[in-house]
Amino acid sequence: MIVSPMADAAMAGVLGLLVGSFLNVVIHRLPKMMFREWLDESTDNFVPAEGMPSLWQLVFGSGASTPKDLAAAATAALPQVRALPALSLASPRSRCPACGHAIKWYENIPVVSYIALRGKCSACATRISLRYPLVELATGVAFMVVASHWGLTPVGLAWAVFAAILIAQFLIDFDTQLLPDSLNYPLLWLGLLVAALGWNIRLDSAVWGAIGGYLSLWSVYQLHHRLTGKVGMGHGDFKLLAALGAWFGAKSLLALILLSSIVGAAVGGALIVVGKLAHKDIPIPFGPFIAGAGLVAMAAGPAKLQQWLPFAFPF
Ligand SMILES: [Zn+2]
Questions:
Q1: What is the residue range of 199's domain?
Q2: What one-character DSSP code corresponds to residue 251?
Q3: Are 22 and 109 within one domain?
């Protein structure tokens, strides 16, 4: 559907603002949902289900039973963990974190509401983080870029999902040092699917890109770990680069890694200037820079990336 490039871009921009509003919820809640799940699983593992060996017994041998105090603590904690109010991306409704005021639909219009409320909660006047409208704006701009490259087409929709997932991963990793699998894997599968449909790069290039993306960071991690004994990256980083490899191809991997370092230097430099990075020893997650590199590469145009620093791969 091509009305005019301008109208397409405007529609994509409005859609991006709405999706950005949803991404704010994802960024805020997904790590909390993951933590709930871990808590539930880990307590569960100390309390054997009826007739089943506990994870403890599977690990330490069938005769070993969980230490009494651990089992007792888990038994006590489990009902409390299970009794926590339900938390999902859809419920409960968004509330002001300061006063609990339920946010009405007209207070939740992307960017517009923030300006109308002058960045304050309507009930208690606590400042609302500038980050919310910025995430909405960034998603709006990203969707306009997608529309300018691919128009309002199925492949454009796929790239819009790509951009949305990377924006979420950027901030989730920045906040929590986590890169949820529930975002990394759909990004990887969608990249392979888009290639298999013939909408993007060749499928073999996407598959080798995914494998190479994972293994390249995994090798750096192993080497760094053997040499220094420190843990510099997490498995989420390998998976995220694998996903980008599926979208940009094996030839683009070196360029993507270099681009990540450039984004990292730029963000790190900016944080030092703003004074948010007092100590150089604070571990800065690498994931946001990989995500940032993916967004920059998308904006520049995936074909450009393959010309810039092509790997000596035949595809
Ligand atoms: Zn409030």
A1: 153-307
A2: G
A3: yes
